[in-house]
Specification:
Elements (H helix, E strand, L loop, with lengths): L10 H16 L1 H7 L2 H12 L5 H17 L4 H8 L4 H20 L5 H32 L2 H32 L4 H19 L7 H14 L4 H11 L1 H31 L4 H29 L2 H25 L2 H24 L10 H33 L9 H27 L4
Helix pairs in contact: 1-8, 1-9, 2-8, 2-9, 3-4, 3-12, 3-13, 4-7, 4-12, 4-16, 5-7, 5-16, 6-7, 6-9, 7-16, 8-13, 11-16, 12-14, 12-16, 12-17, 13-15, 14-15, 14-17
Amino acid sequence: MSARNDPARLPFIARTLMPREVSANATMAVALGALEGGLVGVIVKTQFDGVADPVWVNLAVALVAGAPAFANIVSLWISGLAEGRDRTAWVSACKALTAVFLFVMALAPVSATGLVVITVAMLASRLSWAGVITLRAAIWRANFPRHVRGRITGRITVIYSVIIALTAAFIGMLISVWPEAWRVLFPLAGLLGLVAARRYRRVRIRRGGRLRRQELSQRASRRGGQLRAGWQILASDRWYRRYMLTMFVFGSGNLMVIALLVILLTDQFGFSRFNQVMITTTLPLLTLAVFTPIWARRLDAVHILDYRARQAWAFVLALALFTIAAGAGWSWLFWIGSLALGAAFAGGKLGWNLGHNDFASDDQSTLYMGIHVTLTGIRGLLAPLAGVFVYQALEAWGAGMGRWVLLFPFTLTLGGAVTFVILARLRRQQQTAGPAS
């Protein structure tokens, strides 16, 4: 079959929209590399450990490591502000704000005040990026048909991940030699982010005018704001509600692991800065790039519940490897766990970006995505902090006991994976019984 007749390679999408999206976003990946939770967590832990109480430093590590997820708590608010408006302009503005806070982070002094500054600036930067994720999902839905959306999103994710991984590795390597290198590299990454924000204005949305009119009509007929609309969807859409509840438990385990790894690798195992960045950031992202096309084909072929019923076990494997490595004191196993985590994240990111589309209609896709990422934001705040509190409690019980803290996220992830299997089976049974009922 020729490329022209292949439905997976529609000329308008493959030759126009996807290259524009990739080009506009690739430069931004450098800024995101500097804003990776694992990298910033390592900087906070190693730079500020001697100037503030260790407990507060660990809590700051939890906040910055969880910031990429926690920031999504503003998603419903942002989607409400952008409803019926030009999404490309809003995405561009949010990207610019994301980049600006890198300059603020670079100016944070090495003091207790500086710890607060870098933590708040990281949160603010990631809050801005949450707007990009929320609004860009609707752009991808409008521009890319369902049967190729996973693969196209996968290609964009691969490019993103490689650039972010290399950026984080480069910064990690330099801060191992020159601990203050991030003060120079963060502003440079911020400049590239501003360039990317400007370039994104050239991206166009297919039938964008019609989509804006539909959203305005929906808002006019809806009582209350986005938050109320979100609650109404969760109340009326049983399968989406089940999916969100399971994601909350499952995702909580995944979201606390990076912060705990940063603390464990520093306090319990004495890993160097570079090795910490490699394990928590670079290796998972490089592995993510390798496995994303594999997971993308699976996502394009099945419903998100069937997809999660398989993909979730990759996270269970990764958490099991980390738990064994920490408990047994096998430093080498952290590296294998890092590779497994990247393979799991490859499928997780695709499902996270696109899974809501299997429940939502076109005019409600942004709202469904808003619900999903807002709940991600809540667990992104609570889960890393809960993990650190458990770690501190174990250390208070006995020195060195903190290395068993990974049993906590492993249990949550395992429970979520089992629930996904059950939900997928129940949904298939309902579909089979539907015509006969």
